[in-house]
Amino acid sequence: MFLKILLFLSIFPNIVSSVTCEFCVQSGNTFCTDTYSCIPPEVSCQAPINVDFVCPKAPRVQYNDTFARTRMMVIASAAKSLSENTQDCFSNHFPTTTVYKTREVNCSNTYPNVTCLAYTAYDDTEQVIILGFRGSQGKNQDLTLSENCVANGSIPFFTNGRVVQAFYDSFMFLWDGGIRQDLRRLAYLYPNYKLWIGGHSLGGAMATIASGYIVKTGIFRGEDITLVVLGDMPVTDVVFSKWHWEQIPYSFHVIHRNDNIPRVDPFDPLNNVTMYHSRTEVWYNNYMREGDNYEVCLEAGASFCIRSPQANLTWDDHNYYFDIHLPNWGKAGCPKNLTGFNQE
């Protein structure tokens, strides 16, 4: 079959540009996004696609910048608040949102003072339940995650691919530590409400895994979930990512300019697996101020929209999203006055 395709393309070279990316890759060739054409694998291309999941696809719903920079940014930042300040983040911006419960649990068997945090909330005006996850806190938590990644790599996620165990474990500590019962209780009390899930960094990775877990356990349908995460790392393999794409139409991971965390090495050498972000990536190559341009990436994987040189990666762009230092702003209770929280 492969030889027939090559013979066909050599006889009719003008048809190369009209071959779909999926057909091209599945037949053993390379789809080159430089020219949007199908080429033999030995031909050079700056941005080649060799996995059909990576092929360009328009998002199933439209990305909304205003929704992401107001609602989802507050959801991610509220998770970074001190427990008693979580409600302040919503009271200062969306007073119809009520925090239901905040759960903080020990999530390391190796280091002391390592905790994971998530909260649930609900909004009667929007008719939504909210689930927010906090990012990593301190050196010991970073060591816990990195050592777990090196030692364990990825593990199966039901029958739908693989996820990085370090982030799955962090999520499960919270799930078993009260989030499951809180979410089920809210779903029982508000059966017609939809679910918004968000987080930043580690929180974004846990939010992605949580969205899949919630669908698999039947608490919410995928079409009733809105997932927007900020500055997360690639933690799911291609099988999970394909399944997630099919299940949850409203799914975006937002990346700020030269944020270093989304560019962590996606390869799991223990299981010979490349990890991906869930679709769809939105990349802001600027300060993410109101009115700034952004690119909704049609391809999956980090070789397309995130094109900045690896040498320019920075922690500043990881902490600042939508021109706000998320950790500091969240810890302060998300004040309306943004003085001192903007990126210089």
TrEMBL record:
Statement: the UniProt record of this protein carries the keyword Membrane: no
Superkingdom of origin: Eukaryota
Cited CDD domains: Lipase_3
InterPro entries xref list: AB_hydrolase_fold, Fungal_lipase-type
Gene3D superfamilies given in the database record: alpha/beta hydrolase
UniProt name for this protein: Fungal lipase-type domain-containing protein
Signal peptide span: 1-18
Annotated Fungal lipase-type domain residues: 131-266
Gene Ontology terms: biological process: lipid metabolic process
Keywords: Signal
